[in-house]
Amino acid sequence: MVPPAHEDLRLYLKQPDVWRLKVKPDFVRQYCHGKNPGEEHYHLIVGGELYVDNGERKLCLNCALRAGVVTADREHWRRGRDD
């Protein structure tokens, strides 16, 4: 899927000193530490998927966006670290 040329798909870590962006290099079972809305189970992070990790928790990008760890707001840094 190729997004429209005008769509900005960049994401930003709000705390790059705490969270790291990683790529899952294999297909060994690994779960996201977040849950999708309305679900009671954790979901998989699959090989090749981008995710964030703080050493204790791993979050897929969707869960990281919902948790406020990642943002699409390019101006996030102007409002402060913990916004």
Mean pLDDT: 89
Provide the β-strand percentage band.
15-25%
Oligomer: single chain
Count of helical stretches = 1
User: What order do the SSEs take from the amino end to the carboxyl end, as H and E?
Assistant: EEEEHE
Low-pLDDT parts are none
Please tally the β strands and state the result. Answer: 5
Q: How does this structure look, described?
A:
The protein has 83 residues and is mostly beta strands. It contains one helix and five strands; from the N terminus they run E-E-E-E-H-E. The strands form two sheets. Strands 2-3-4 form a three-stranded antiparallel β-sheet. The protein starts with 11 loop residues before the first strand and ends in a 12-residue tail after the last strand.
Provide a compact summary of the structure.
The chain has 83 residues and is mainly beta. It contains one helix and five strands, in the order E-E-E-E-H-E.
Keyphrases for this structure?
83 residues; mainly beta; three-stranded antiparallel beta sheet; two-stranded antiparallel sheet; 18% strand; globular
